[in-house]
Amino acid sequence: MSPGRRKAPKKRLVVVDASVLRGAGHRWPSPSSEGKSCAEVLRTLWRVCHSGVYGELLAAEANHHQSQFGRSWRARMSAAGKWLPQLEERGWLQALLASKHCPLSPSERANARKDSHLISLAWVTDRIILSTDDTAGDLFARLVPLDDRLAPVHWINPRTHCERLIPWLEQGAPERVDWQLGRRASR
Length: 187
Description:
The protein is an alpha/beta fold. It is 50% helix and 9% strand. The chain starts with 12 loop residues before the first strand and ends with a helix.
């Protein structure tokens, strides 16, 4: 590498929850003001060349709940080969949620099951989830003491972390402990 040239950031496989696609607003390239942070993060994923991944459940959820901006973003990512199908393995997580040692109430377990596909996708990719659903992230963090496979998963809300999230994505999304479920569990 010649002097003065920066090394290209590592390209990551990122799980983008339907809540982010919905939260991005209505128009590509100009989102609504309340969706600006989600839209900026989606634009950054596009510009930096990270890829979004989806499984069957996430695709169905996104088709049902995404905004016009989210739909346009997915179409552009798909056309560029950067919105990728991924097989998910949810057996271990479903077993954890059914365990008698699970600290979640029955309603919390149901909510965790609803979003378990995000964890499953993250686990088989680069362990990065973008979601505006902090409640789900907190539920999974409470499961870390039962299964440390959850600890390294990054759960990041674009609405609350946009200013730090964009540079992090631009730098190749290196491991950041403060956004991992293991750190949430220790709070």
